[in-house]
Structures are given as structure tokens and as C-alpha cells.
């Protein structure tokens, strides 16, 4: 069992020199908030085509990663408090090595299930004012992960995150990341991902297309914001 140290929400605001709409700036709440199928009440995303929705209702990012990032990019104001990565849930004691696709947790009175890892995008570059931040997050494996909401309810800072069920404990978020971004042509792993229950169709599609094409996707536009 782990405790959620912070619950965070944010509104859409201008990000970077061009004022890109983004909801990445999340701030801790001090009260109970409602956990809905689409996310936490009062939380918002700037681009619903790639952020938010039922499969990415809640973003969880481990606080222990912050110390690693301070070592890698140096002192940064964003790394002095939770919310730097646009997370909704902040904890100590659980990382990508510990949670697996399909893990189901009781969070306050809500019931949530791990759906997928986070795929960092170029808005992290603007957020940190570090040109390769999104790429570095993807390469590091310190991406955080998303939940779908199975039962709506209430959550408050300090709520326990209680593991209820594990359907595929061997498929941790770290293993999924490693198969997609490190050992990219491990055909056995890709075949398993393509059939992995509780993983969103989009992610299973990545694996199926890679198996068919024997080619790795070009992630550059997602990481840099530049279209070729």
C-alpha cells in the first residue's frame, strides 16, 4: 500500500513563447476532489486529441524521479515541488518497475486501473525550457503512467493507494517501455504486447504494426513538435 502525497489539477494556460494552450501546469489541492471517468473534476487538458480521455484519465508520476532529474539537468524551479511533469498523482515508493498494465487500485472511494505508460511530448521542452526534455524523459524510462477510472469516487491528499488486483504482473510499465523504446525489435515481446489485455488498442497497434513492417516508428514530431 502506498499513500498519495499530492493530488494535482490544472487549467489550460499559455505555454512557451508562442503561447501554446496546455494544461501541464498542475497544482496540489488541499481538499477532496471527484475522480470521474474522464479525469479529476476541475482538471483540464489543452489538446484532447493526445491528452486526457478515459484511457489517460489520471497521470501518476513518482516524486523520487525528481532527484534524478535535478542531477541530470541541474537545479530547476519546477523540480522543487510536485506537478513539474503535469501529474495528477504524486507519491513516494512506487515506480514504473512496480506497477503493471491492468493493476487495479482503490484510491479513496474510486477504483482505478493502470492503462499505459506516458508517452512524453514536446510540451515538456517548453515547460522546462530544455530543448530535448521530452526525448530525455522517453529515453530514461522515467515517464510515469496513466490510469483509467473503473468506478468514480472521491480522493484527497494523503489517500491510500491500495492494490486490489493484478491481471498481468509481469507486464510492468518498465517492461513495456523497454520493449517499445529500447529493445525495439524483440519480436516475442511485440507479439505479446499486441495481445496484451487491458492495454489500450492504440498501444497494441504500435506492436502489431511494428511486427508487420519490421520498422520502428519515427517519434521525432511528437518529441520536438516539428513536422517533416
Describe the structure.
With 228 residues, the protein is an alpha+beta fold. The chain has one domain: PK beta-barrel domain-like (M1 Pyruvate Kinase, Domain 3, Beta Barrel). The chain is 26% helix and 25% strand. It contains seven helices and 13 strands. A seven-stranded mixed beta barrel has the order 1-8-7-11-10-9-13. A three-stranded antiparallel sheet has the order 6-5-12, with no helix packed on it. The protein has a two-stranded antiparallel sheet with strand order 2-3. The relative contact order is 0.18.
Q: What's the structural blueprint in terms of helices and strands?
A:
Layout: E1 2-9, E2 13-15, E3 20-22, E4 27-28, E5 33-36, E6 39-40, E7 58-62, H1 64-73, E8 89-91, E9 104-107, E10 110-117, H2 123-128, H3 133-140, E11 145-151, E12 153-155, E13 160-165, H4 173-181, H5 187-194, H6 201-213, H7 220-224
Parallel strand pairs: 7-8
Antiparallel strand pairs: 1-4, 1-8, 1-13, 2-3, 5-6, 5-12, 7-11, 9-10, 9-13, 10-11
Helix pairs in contact: 5-6
Short key terms for the protein model shown above:
single chain; about 230 residues; alpha+beta; M1 Pyruvate Kinase, Domain 3; seven-stranded mixed barrel; three-stranded antiparallel beta sheet; globular; MOSC domain-containing protein; Benzoxazolinone_Detox_Enz; MoCF_Sase_C
In short:
With 228 residues, the chain is α+β, with helices and mostly antiparallel strands. It has helices spanning 64-73, 123-128, 133-140, 173-181, 187-194, 201-213, 220-224, and strands spanning 2-9, 13-15, 20-22, 27-28, 33-36, 39-40, 58-62, 89-91, 104-107, 110-117, 145-151, 153-155, 160-165. The chain has one domain (2-168): M1 Pyruvate Kinase, Domain 3 (Beta Barrel), CATH 2.40.33.20.
Amino acid at each position: 500500500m502506498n499513500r498519495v502525497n499530492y493530488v494535482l489539477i490544472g487549467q489550460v494556460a499559455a505555454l512557451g513563447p508562442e503561447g501554446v494552450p496546455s494544461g501541464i501546469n498542475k497544482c496540489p489541492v488541499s481538499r477532496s476532489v471527484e475522480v470521474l471517468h474522464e479525469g479529476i473534476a476541475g482538471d483540464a487538458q489543452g489538446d484532447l486529441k493526445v491528452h486526457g480521455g478515459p484511457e489517460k484519465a489520471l497521470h501518476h508520476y513518482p516524486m523520487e524521479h525528481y532527484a534524478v532529474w535535478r542531477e541530470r539537468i541541474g537545479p530547476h524551479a519546477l523540480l522543487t515541488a510536485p506537478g513539474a511533469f503535469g501529474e495528477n498523482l504524486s507519491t513516494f515508493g512506487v515506480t514504473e518497475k512496480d506497477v503493471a498494465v491492468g493493476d487495479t487500485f482503490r484510491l479513496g472511494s474510486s477504483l482505478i486501473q493502470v492503462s499505459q505508460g506516458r508517452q512524453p511530448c514536446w510540451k515538456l521542452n517548453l515547460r522546462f525550457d530544455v530543448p530535448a526534455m521530452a526525448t530525455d524523459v522517453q529515453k530514461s524510462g522515467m515517464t510515469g503512467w496513466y490510469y483509467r477510472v473503473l468506478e468514480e469516487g472521491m480522493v484527497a491528499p494523503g489517500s491510500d493507494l491500495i492494490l486490489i488486483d493484478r491481471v498481468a504482473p509481469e507486464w510492468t510499465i518498465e517492461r513495456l517501455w523497454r520493449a517499445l523504446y529500447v529493445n525495439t525489435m524483440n519480436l516475442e515481446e511485440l507479439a505479446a504486447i499486441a495481445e496484451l489485455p487491458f492495454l489500450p488498442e492504440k498501444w497494441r497497434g504500435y506492436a502489431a504494426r511494428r511486427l508487420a513492417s519490421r520498422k520502428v516508428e519515427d517519434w521525432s514530431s511528437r518529441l520536438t513538435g516539428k513536422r517533416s
